[in-house]
Specification:
Layout: H1 4-7, E1 13-19, H2 25-29, E2 38-43, E3 49-62, H3 71-89, E4 98-99, E5 105-114, E6 125-130, E7 141-143, E8 148-152, E9 158-162, E10 165-168, H4 169-178, H5 212-221
Parallel strand pairs: 3-5, 3-6, 6-8
Antiparallel strand pairs: 1-2, 2-3, 4-5, 7-8, 9-10
This protein binds zinc ion (ZN).
The site of zinc ion has 3 residues, from helix 4.
């Protein structure tokens, strides 16, 4: 069940909401796990619309060596996650998701609740986040079927992934949290190095297939155009 009070801001009017059905082979494999995220379609007081993708995330902060998490570090990680994921994956202002015939805009926004343990009956995701020294590197990964992942404090640094592409671990891994597969090891997009699910950070139209079908269905059903 979606508690809209968790997600909506003052003045936003809910039009439709859904707990995401599994979106990839991996996600559909195990039907007993929780949804990966909720989607809500809302209208703002100014008439424009927002497609909201909402995740409750439990973060387990892990100290490593002589690196200890401070309150400020935790705050920073959550702030980076919120802001950098939205800047990369979201669509607002000039980079809107779509423009309707009525000239109203639809933007895309990601909202997160972190570590509200005891308030919610479940979290969509549980992430281990390791505190590393600035010069250390660790492989981050997401296991989408289990709704778990491993991140670290250097995941918002750019890493050279191919001769011409750079990528931040967290923004790539977030694609897996949406249900997208890797493109760098096999498949038809293996040579699209710039793609975010490959070795770069470019979001292609195909990556929007996670939420566009539901958005289009909602617009049709609610007769919004
Ligand atoms: Zn990956």
């Amino acid at each position: 069940m979606i508690n809209t009070w968790e997600v909506l801001k003052h003045g936003e009017r809910l039009i439709s909401a859904i707990e995401t059905p599994p979106t990839t082979r991996d996600l559909s494999f195990n039907h007993t796990v929780t949804p990966a995220f909720d989607m809500l379609f809302v209208q703002r007081p100014n008439g424009n619309y927002i497609l909201l993708i909402y995740m409750r995330i439990k973060i387990i902060y892990i100290d490593r060596g002589n690196q200890y998490w401070s309150f400020l570090d935790k705050d920073n990680f959550e702030k980076n996650f919120r802001e950098k994921i939205n800047k990369k994956w979201g669509a607002s202002n000039i980079k809107i998701l779509s423009r309707l015939a009525s000239r109203k805009n639809i933007s895309l926004e990601f909202r997160f609740s972190f570590n509200k343990i005891g308030v919610f009956t479940y979290n969509h995701w549980t992430l281990n986040v390791i505190k590393l020294r600035k010069d250390e590197w660790a492989q981050s990964f997401v296991t989408s079927s289990l709704r778990t992942g491993n991140f670290d404090t250097n995941d918002f640094d750019y890493v050279k992934k191919s001769p011409k592409t750079y990528q931040r671990g967290a923004v790539h891994e977030f694609g897996h949290m949406l249900g997208l597969d890797d493109e760098y090891n096999s498949g038809v997009f293996i040579s699209d190095l710039k793609s975010i699910m490959n070795s770069g950070e470019t979001i292609r139209q195909r990556h929007r297939a996670i939420y566009m079908p539901w958005l289009n269905k909602t617009l049709r059903e609610k007769n919004i155009h």
